[in-house]
Write a structure and sequence with these properties.
Order of helices and strands: HHHEEEEHHEHHEEHH
Protein name: DUF1264 domain-containing protein
Organism: Fibrisoma montanum
Oligomer: single chain
Structural class: alpha+beta
Strand content: 15-25%
Keywords: Signal
Length: about 260
Amino acid sequence: MRKLVGVLSLVLLIWACGGGNTSSNVTSPGAEKSAKTKVLEAGADVIQDKSPIRKLNMYLDGFHFYNGHLAGQMEAHHYCAKLNEDLTQCVIYDGNGDSAKIMGVEYIISEKLFKTLPADEKKLWHSHRYEVKSGELIAPGLPDVAEHELMEQIVTTYGKTWHTWHTDQDIRLPLGSPALMMAFTRDGLLKPELVKDRDERFGVSISEKRRQRTDIQSPPKTPGADSWETGEIIQLPALTDHKHEHVNQNSFKSETVKR
């Protein structure tokens, strides 16, 4: 029966809905598409092969914050493809509609692969244990049974996330350096208004998701991830001098939270 549920989950991941209800955070400069551009797009859509994009058949919605800047929080729409049982790659958007902007990418690996990483590399990764158990991470449109099966797979994984467009700051273009992002690891860190807004749009309840996932087994996370908790902040040097200061590495401060 468990194998059957797994197969059904895969089918549902491919066909489930749950999008089109979250607008992009920013409006970018640029002229409207010309008739010529639209014709070229239509032709390319029919003629060109897009195998990698078609593999993005899993939709996850959660929240990130800037490593070293806990107050810099935003919702993140992940469109993912499992390369194999141990590796998943995701494209992250600031919405799920036609105007959504690509914010960055996330790579997700199994605990087995995470344990093989060098100590310095592990510092770039975050755990997903709390995201799953708390109900923060959802798979919009999936029936509860399929989502539960998916969360059982994700709970022990680790992610490395870089945002290249800081749309939460109303930056109209992808300016500045890519930023390393982290995930929340305990109650009281994520802004309640972000969750409330998300839950209303998708018609879900984080508290109900948490209740439904109490039976998901979640062994202690492997040491090395979530390095921000111990005050070790990693970010790239700033490439521009624009005024959105918390994208500048010099403005990141340790926000270690006592457990």
